[in-house]
Amino acid sequence: MPAEPCDFELTLDVRDYECDLQGLVNNAVYQNYLEHARHQYLASLGLSFARFHEAGHDLVLTRVEIDYKAPLVSGDRFTVRLSVVAESRLRFCFVQDIYKEPDGVHVLHGRLIGTSLNRNGRPGLPPELKTLLLSR
Q1: Are 73 and 25 in contact (CB under 8 A)?
Q2: How much is the pTM?
Q3: Which positions ≥6 away from 97 have C-beta within 8 Å?
Q4: Which residues are catalytic?
Q5: To bridge 126 with a disulfide, which of 57, 86, 111, 118 should be the other Cys (CB 3.0-4.6 Å)?
């Protein structure tokens, strides 16, 4: 895996049912891996999607860009690495990469852009996210 810094890493294993008829992880499953890593990252900071929702802030993705570079198969172990950066005043970007273990083959690169919507459906980041993004 590359030596560049990241904000969070999560190592997981591919399960049989995540594979298609070709024996490869289905392309849609990778988004589950990325989402799980984002949730775990926020949880590691003491933040949760449920608490944001209860406070009137719904975190939503507005754009997903994924480059698939190499496949994973059942039984593979892999690491999801992520960094979060400000995309604009009202948007954030999770830069996420997946690497196969133990050889470090680059499996996927993604840029997932999101925002937060208040109860009226208007964008506006909660204070915790603003603080997180300003610390980058």
Answers
A1: yes
A2: 0.92
A3: 80, 81, 82, 106, 108, 109, 110
A4: 20
A5: 57
